[in-house]
From TrEMBL:
GO MF entry, a single one: methyl salicylate esterase activity
Designated name of the protein: AB hydrolase-1 domain-containing protein
Gene3D superfamilies: alpha/beta hydrolase
GO biological process, one term: jasmonic acid metabolic process
Amino acid sequence: MTSLPAHKNVVLVGHSIGGLAISKAMELFPGKISGAVFVAGLMPGPNINASTVYIEVPNFHIPIFSHEIICYAMQCVEDVSNEIILSRKRYGSIRRAFVVTPEDKLLKKEFQQLMIERNPPDEVKEIQGADHMVMMSKPHELFKFLLRFADKGLTHVSVATV
């Protein structure tokens, strides 16, 4: 982000745990980010911190996944959650969207809705029939939404995914 030319901005896209990474970037570099899209992503914010998101995930995952896989995946989240403190002034100044994946077998729709309610984004897009890997289950719908989001009145924008 620091090497990005001054006249260029990016739209960040974070999927799943990548939502934490783009949240941290939003807090650190708000002047370089035109927007952020959380695609079935963990979306902390001033009203729902990363630690709370981490604690809530086990309550909403689908039990067909083994406990060991969930714990392994979430171990890095616990470490990162202590570093992510988000402010309304920086993080909150960036336009956000959340892509809901109703057929998600990892993060239930109820958990996605909880994050949306506690940290309302500017836009919510539900992609019918999408599962956790929406880029595989509904790639065209996701791509069209990302393009539309990035094009909304923005110039000199690059899309970076996490």
